Amino acid sequence: MSIHSTNVMLYMSEAIRNRYVIEDYVGVGSFGKIYKALDTQNGETVALKVSRRSPGSENEVQILQKFMNSGSRHCPKLFYSSKDDMYVYISMEILGVPLKTYRYKSKRKKLSTACVSLIAIQCIEALRDLHEAGYLHLDLSPTNLLLGLDSDANRIFLIDFGLSKAITDDCCYFTTDHFFGTQCYASISMHNLQPIGRKDDLLSLLYVLTELLTGSLPWETVKSRTDMVKMKIERFPILCKSLPAPLSMFGEHLNELNYMDKPDYQLLIDGFTEWLNSKKLSPDSPLDLKLK
Fold first, then answer.
1. Binning pLDDT at 50, 70 and 90, where does residue 14 land?
2. Which of 170, 283, 183, 178 is nearest to 228 (CA)?
3. For the segment 192-227, what is each residue's pLDDT rounded down to a tens digit?
4. Does a structural domain hold residue 115?
5. What is the band of 12 on the pLDDT scale with cuts at 50, 70, 90?
6. Greatest CA separation for the chain
7. Angle CA(273)–CA(278)–CA(283) in degrees, nearest 5?
8. Number of domains within the chain
């Protein structure tokens, strides 16, 4: 059985780099395909990302290494990477399903405020850790936020750094002359090709959290990017004010920032923590996400 894509064509049971045996197709990332594979050197099952060589795919290895070295509990373990004349191979720990799947499989196609608050805390931590490691994600979506397996079943992992860009203390923003990312969750600054900073990753997260909570975003079926931007500018602030307090406060904080400002991650985390405490829950409470 073969798997075709614009990036790669791999065969089930094919040996890759004389080390990995393809077992199944998992999904697609920004630059390549992800497979479940057996590492024949140690007998472990891994997630193997195979991408055509490009600056983005080769940069992803470096980002993963720095993110992992930061000690973030939201970074998947990087086991091994290599490349040949055509492809980059990244071997990582295998994870569970993305948040998008949990929402689709939920009874009402949306999640509870408590569950979204627990998710929010972990996602803010993940973005804080990535930013402190020196990178903007730039493609945050519910498909790039995955739960772990077994003992990590209540932990959220941030993946897919193919579009990520480096930042420093002296240059904490990024500029571009073309749009990239996922339109539905992209920040207004990305749409308008304005300077993009740490607040833009958090705005994408706020869109994700709003969708998880309400079941949809007002612009999700809009095809025109111009119309989508208009809705994000005009309708989302109104929607945001009607959201539970910690999400509404999240939006207010982002509105106070410009592209160079460092978000107050702890302020946002504290807002969700206080709401959870008021419901006799804590940030360590189980997510209680189930697939029907």
1. low
2. 183
3. 999 999 999 999 999 999 999 999 999 999 999 999
4. yes
5. low
6. 56
7. 30
8. 2
User: Per the domain annotation, does 58 fall within a domain?
Assistant: yes
Q: What is the CATH number of the domain that holds 55?
A: 3.30.200.20
In this structure, are 57 and 176 located in the same domain? no
Say whether pLDDT at 10 is over 90: no
On whether both 136 and 264 belong to a single domain, the answer is: yes
Q: 10: which 2 tokens? A: 């791999």
Place of tokens 């073309």: 178
Q: What is the pTM of this model?
A: 0.93
Model pLDDT, residue 5:
41
- Please report where in the chains the tokens 């990017």 appear, as a residue: 225
Q: Which of 109, 96, 91, 123 is nearest to 22 (CA)?
A: 91
Whether residue 134 is found in the same domain as residue 270: yes
Distance CA 238, CA 194 (A): 23
* 155 and 174 share one domain: yes
